């Protein structure tokens, strides 16, 4: 026997062991086939509670995406397992449970962990972020070692000309390629914006629409574009990634590391901190927000639903001040939490000093009007933020308050944009634009993906201040505090007992719903999750896709 024999024996042994543990044991070990998990649900009164529920299988599209994930070797570098140690829990989320892997054969637990663990990645990023990331990871993370997966996109060889469509708009030249990507005769249009380098992302939803090339702020001034079109394969891969961790429900809304709440925190200007903030910005932010901070980074073309923030105009949506500019505390909260449902991820993993430094860079270097080079206007110097508004403790929720909130919803005409059911399909929804001239879509409030935060206090803050730069106004002067609190509770209740990924009503027992609605029930941790009585039959299957669920109090 020699070294080669031992190496061969060790290789065969390891392969056999892997087949047994990954392929055989999952079929014979009962605990690997349980579908029981603990998950977070939002109650009718806006509370977030842990409860015992059942994991769901992959959809056909998600399963196809999982096969692509395996085929492309993603599992070589990315693990899918949160171990019960403090570092992992605070970085990734709740400890993994056996029920989460009921439909995984083989298991993709992994051990190398060269890339981030993906167990809890579902809905951490938007679909658009993932599309940009798969096309070129270094557009978003310059120091990433992940390979681009441009082969999953359709990229025509020849550039396509931008032409006038005869109605005052710009569109793409009709060619054999573009006619396969768009319906030029459709009555519905889709607005697309190339990045500064002439790359134009084309989503699948464009197939039934005519293209409008929208560059209201000269985001691109060239005459031709290169196309990167979404395919069914990359859409399936994104769908699979978004499923990961979502059997645990709305757990992220209770995730303490990104639940930063700060009223005010202001640092004196420091040139050293500004210089360091520039380094942080170029490592973490430049891909979307651009080198100039104008929201036109190389990945911005993929964000066709909502453009990245243009810092140069000093218009910030999320604040707790009467004046338009936010405090350092407001910006720190936004960076830490991220903006749910958009390509802006939470950055709680960044050291606090990095977050504070990048705020200095944004305030004093990017939020500057340089239209007159001889006299630049620094907004945060000339118009410093005023004192923060005070938000008191929310009143206790009740059915009476939800009923009042429903009345305020009608009086304030929230339905004109958000629709009667809160799905963002109101009669004024189509055609809304932000201050920069881009289309803006009212939030689907039934999704529970609240941009400013998941708590009723976050909704109250948004209703109070409005969202600067968008059609969402402030109701601070038009609605008294008690009406704004009632409306806030009504808004959060629109997403009660909804699956955060499919947006379908959860199949939950009537008695369990009543128990979870009990304001005195404490279920703030997985180990203290509410356990429904298994002998009580469920109230019925989830409603079919598209069917309205009556809001609480309705």
Automatic annotation (TrEMBL):
Region described as Disordered: spans on this chain: 525-554
Q: Which Pfam families match?
A: Cytochrome_CBB3 (PF13442), FixO (PF02433)
Q: Which InterPro entries match?
A: Cyt_c-like_dom, Cyt_c-like_dom_sf, Cyt_c_oxidase_monohaem-su/FixO
Q: Which residues form the Cytochrome c domain?
A: 60-245, 272-366, 400-495
Is Manganese given among the entry's keywords?
no
Q: Which GO terms describe its molecular function?
A: electron transfer activity; heme binding; metal ion binding
What are the entry keywords? Heme, Iron, Metal-binding
- Give the protein's recorded name: Cytochrome-c oxidase
User: What is the originating organism of this protein?
Assistant: Mesorhizobium wenxiniae
Classification lineage: Bacteria, Pseudomonadati, Pseudomonadota, Alphaproteobacteria, Hyphomicrobiales
